[in-house]
Specification:
It is found in: Cell membrane. Its EC number is 2.7.7.41. Belongs to the CDS family. This is Phosphatidate cytidylyltransferase. The protein is mainly alpha-helical. It folds into two domains: 131 residues, no CATH class; 130 residues, no CATH class. 74% of the residues lie in helices and 3% in strands.
Length: 262
């Protein structure tokens, strides 16, 4: 527990000031975190990021992460992000032939989906911060409240397993408790901040974000169970890897855009 607390303090001391500053530091941070997360995902599949498919995945990730203010860079060469993704698919498939199927069709699918999963999530981290610091803090506090509420309420009264095949310790009672704690945080945001929403809007959005934050956590748990790994990485002692810390937020940041804020 001591190691876990120290790691959280050190990471928070780096992450929070950068987020508060905003601008280019956030873009650089997103690129760094996303690159590490992609490395962790490829490693689960036993794919080396310092390889032809690894480099293609990384370059495609960096293109996906380009924020709106740098869209002109893509316009210069008349390519959209989707077209770059299609080009990457062709290169991946060509590589299956070059390697005589040592790099398989399944590896192609994994590489593309891993890049999209990480790239979309961290792209919307950049865009969310661009729209306002309040939205980043709202997403962070909603997920922290959901995780803490699910853990403590689940330990106190949890009996019915939520999804034992994927995450055997999570309970239905804990999951509901996590949503309830997130709703309390949403009310506090409405009372003490200038977040632009009515009470009904904010409560409805919070339920969706809290539920999908838990789904994001389960998705990463399913990945780790499938590939038989305990943690996605070791960069944060006591916490695991970047994916272990951002799995819920990779779902929440895009959803903030899709359902409400922008």
């Amino acid at each position: 527990m001591k190691q876990r607390i120290i790691s959280a303090i050190v990471f928070g001391a780096i992450f929070l000031p950068v987020v508060i500053i905003g601008g280019m530091p956030v873009v650089i941070l997103a690129y760094l975190l996303a690159s590490i997360a992609l490395y962790e995902l490829l490693k689960m599949r036993k794919l080396n990021i310092i390889s032809v498919p690894g480099i293609i995945s990384l370059l495609l990730l960096w293109i996906f992460l380009l924020p709106n203010q740098f869209q002109a860079l893509l316009n210069i060469i008349h390519f959209t992000k989707i077209e770059f993704a299609l080009l990457a698919v062709l290169l991946f498939l060509t590589y299956t032939v070059v390697t005589k199927n040592r790099f398989t069709f399944d590896d192609v699918a994994f590489s593309i989906l891993a890049t999209l999963y990480v790239g979309i999530g961290f792209y919307y981290f950049i865009e969310t911060r661009e729209e306002g610091l309040i939205f980043i803090f709202f997403s962070l506090f909603i997920i922290w409240a959901t995780d803490s509420g699910a853990y403590f309420i689940g330990r106190a009264i949890g009996k019915k397993k939520l999804w034992p095949e994927i995450s055997p310790n999570k309970t239905i009672e804990g999951s509901i408790g996590g949503v309830f704690c997130a709703l309390i945080v949403a009310v506090l945001f409405l009372l003490f901040t200038n977040i632009p929403a009515s009470l009904f809007q904010l409560l409805l959005i919070t339920v969706v974000l809290s539920v999908f934050g838990q789904i994001g956590d389960l998705v990463e748990s399913a990945l780790k169970r499938h590939y038989d790994v305990k943690d996605s990485g070791k960069i944060m002692p006591g916490h695991g890897g970047i994916l272990d810390r951002f799995d819920s937020l990779l779902f929440v940041w895009p959803l903030i855009h899709f359902i409400y804020l922008f």
